Amino acid sequence: MVRSEVNINMAERFPHWPAGDVALATKLFFEILSEALIEEQRIELRGFGTFEVRKRSAKTARNPRTRKQVEVGVRGRVHFRAGRNMRKVVDASKSKFPIKKIKETRPSREEA
Questions:
Q1: Largest CB tally within 10 Å, which of 3, 10, 62, 88?
Q2: 49 plus 92 within the same structural domain
Q3: 79, part of any domain
Q4: Which N-terminal residues, if any, form the signal peptide (predicted)?
Q5: What is the pTM of this model?
């Protein structure tokens, strides 16, 4: 789902809100979340999940094109952990819509 689809869903649920207000509300919501993550705050949305920034330590990596070693500094990444209610909803939907395994089209290593 993309932001425009969120706006459409919000507009359907709040038909008395002008479309501009719906778009502004979703934009502000994501801006507030982004600003909190930039400040390395933990965001907890009860029943949905938590977002937090976790640090990746500095390391020596390799540029795949030139094969030269490159130093990569400490970086942050956003980690999401689903809340209990969200996990229950997703797990319940798996029983309604089971995930089908895709058959492998390439021969396995043993067959080749």
A1: 10
A2: yes
A3: yes
A4: none
A5: 0.67
